[in-house]
Write a structure and sequence with these properties.
By secondary structure, this protein is an alpha/beta fold. The chain has eleven helices and 13 strands. Bound molecules: nicotinamide-adenine-dinucleotide.
Length: about 350
């Protein structure tokens, strides 16, 4: 069965392609390489023994998307990762984010609605919850006013899919990721942030190899056990597996409604200091870091209630924070040794 993975050469997409191929799916990737490289195909091939089909195209070009579906008219499902994802950049260039993240989604749905049936998996984010009132966060926690244009594209994306599914043959699953980290254990694929990393773990590993002088920990006076902010770090391989399960659920028509939403996290909150200590443990290195004031827009804590994902989707995160940090560290060392 052929599955389209948009953004399939990116961080989460590439790990998902591996899991899809391991489950016997035929994968075709769309990516414009704006935040990835064609070398990732080699990593996927080394791990799985199979090279996925690859179409280099920009999803903002409607005609290219139309041509793609004419050529690949046997696509049974779509996992849509392709998007711009840097929160800070989205504040500076909102239209770039609205154009890329929203027009790509619309063009894909316009093609899929012409099919007798279509299964669609969407990369959403726990940012839709903002600072939720209750921890752990359940899927019915209210969606809050987005704190950035990037976050808003996820909320709007969810709404566009929900409205479209109501009146078409599209069935969809919205996956709200918490904080994806780590790399494949083969060290053939991993996260490749451009420039200064926006996320904690690549910043830590880059500091570990000496690329960054020290890590700034923003805020040590949050109302959390050690004063630093708490997040739910989910290993990217666990996350990738959830996509395969979600797709199989739609393809086998086990979904209970036209659009379902699941949190993807471990259910465990870890503080910034706990992540640093995990890195220090697995790398046997001291990480230089300094405490800084809180950063505007950062929330205190966010971790998932995973009951719905565990009991209804039938998926559970299995890998630990230490395993994620060890794989991220191995990956960073490999990338820097090239
Ligand atoms: N990584 C996270 O922390 C995180 C958290 C929550 C949600 N998400 C969402 O998950 C998805 C994947 O994230 P990621 O971390 O793998 O990002 P990534 O940047 O590594 O991957 C995205 C891929 O999409 C491609 N792409 C972007 N715009 C495109 C376009 N117009 N046409 C074709 N290809 C395009 C990029 O080249 C890249 O390979 C994104 O939608 C992101 O918003 C990520």
């Amino acid at each position: 069965m052929k599955v389209l993975v948009t953004g399939g050469l990116g961080f989460i997409g590439s790990h998902t392609v591996v899991e899809l191929q391991n489950e016997g799916f035929e994968v075709v990737i769309i990516d414009n390489l704006s935040n990835s490289s064609e070398d990732v195909l080699k990593g996927i091939t080394t791990i799985t023994g199979k090279t996925p089909l690859f179409e280099k195209l920009d999803l903002r070009e409607k005609a290219s998307v139309q041509d793609f579906f004419k050529k690949h008219n046997d696509v049974a499902g779509v996992i849509h990762f392709a998007a711009s994802k840097a929160v800070g950049e989205s504040v500076e260039q909102p239209l770039l984010y609205y154009e890329n993240n929203i027009s790509s989604l619309i063009y894909l749905l316009q093609e899929l609605q012409q099919k007798p049936e279509a299964s669609f998996i969407f990369s959403s984010s726990c940012t839709v919850y903002g600072q939720a009132e209750k921890m752990p966060i359940t899927e019915d926690a209210p969606v809050q006013v987005a704190m950035s244009p990037y976050g808003n594209t996820k909320q709007i994306g969810e709404e566009i899919i929900t409205d479209t599914a109501k009146v078409t043959n599209i069935n969809a699953i919205l996956l709200r990721y918490f904080n994806p980290v780590g790399a494949h254990k083969s060290v053939e694929i991993g996260e490749l942030p451009l420039g200064v990393p926006q996320n904690l773990v690549p910043f830590i590993t880059q500091t570990g190899v000496g690329l960054r002088q020290e890590l700034s920990v923003f805020g040590d006076d949050y109302p959390t056990p050690d004063g630093t902010a708490v997040r739910d770090y989910i290993h990217v391989v666990d996350l990738a597996k959830a996509h395969v399960i979600a797709l199989q659920r739609l393809l086998s028509k086990k979904n209970l409604s036209k659009v379902e939403t699941f949190n993807l996290g471990t259910g465990k909150g870890s503080s910034v200091l706990e992540v640093i200590h995990s890195f220090e443990k697995v790398s046997d290195k001291k990480l230089p870091y300094k405490m800084m004031p809180r950063r505007e827009g950062d929330i205190t804590e966010a971790y998932a209630n995973t009951d719905k994902a565990n009991n209804i989707l039938g998926w559970k995160a299995e890998l630990s924070l230490d395993e994620a940090m060890a794989s991220a560290w191995k990956w960073e060392q490999k990338v820097r040794s090239k």
